[in-house]
Amino acid sequence: MKPFSSLILLFIISYIATPFIPTSSNAAEPELVSAKRIWDKAAHNAFTDLIRYDGRWLCVFREGSAHVAPDGSLRILTSADGENWKQLSLVSHPTEDLRDAKISLTPEGNLLLNGAGMIADAKIRYHSMSWLSKDGGKTWDQGRRIGDPGYWLWRVTWHKGTAYTMGYSTERQRDTRKVRLYKSSTGLKFETLISKVNLPAGAGEDTLMFQKDGTALCIFRYEAGDKMARLGTSKAPYTEWSWKKLNQRIGGPNMITLPDGRIVVVARMFRGSAKNAKTVLAWLDPDKGELTEFLTLPSGGDTSYPGLVWHDGLLWISYYSSHESKTSIYLAKVKF
Q1: Which of 130, 193, 249, 304 could covalently link to 114 via disulfide, CB atoms 3.0 to 4.6 Å apart?
Q2: Count of domains in the chain?
Q3: pTM, entire model
Q4: pLDDT digit string (tens) for 292-333?
Q5: Which residues pair with 218 in a beta bridge?
């Protein structure tokens, strides 16, 4: 064989043997596998959270006669497969509108709900509360008030046996609201870690997340000034925080780290007005302080407040939406 022909043959062999490596232009985009309505029994069904516990799914949300109503209760559903759901339990209060419960697992293996009780005409309208279940969510204790009166401890996140939660003050004038950071070893009683977090007034709903190196990230909804969200970072013992303004206005945020290290934020994002809001997935770049939208769930209007679980190679998302005539509870699955 001639030398020139040999070179050509070697080139063809090496080309065929070279593995295909996806690039940003040809890598598969995240795919919405399914989005299914799983509950719509009450007049208003909203503000979800999701957990996988003992081989089952549990989804918690508020149900009531309206977005704000004195009959608000916390409904817990369960499912073995994520397709067929049934009622598991209901947490109610004789005088308070129970709102926005989040569900987590304590170090002892019990389920914890945390949320808020509201009395619309009271001087102090909101009191944060928690409830404990020792039988997988079938029954719950009587609950107790946690944190400080008038502070809403939004979402509990456990890290190395300690529960952390930001709490925002609930003055009617949103641009005066302040933030505190709390911690607890049980979820039943919280102590103040920071009495005044170094954020300008106006913060609201948030989510905390801890990275592998122990760094804490926190995203806040903001309702003052330009209403752009805020991103905070802190190292243990989490008494000092630095903050960045993000490039989006959001509501009811939640976030999760994928197995490959990328961070996904799911939140209500606004399209010019609240009526045009959608539940949207976005990549978070914590260094740049940027949210980059990549997927919109079937949603609209009164929507979002997701629960997030990574399971069997999929991101499972509970959320609520009013795009199909009434506020209902949905479950979506996204493949990456």
Answers
A1: 130
A2: 1
A3: 0.91
A4: 999 999 999 999 999 999 999 999 999 999 999 899 999 999
A5: 208, 232
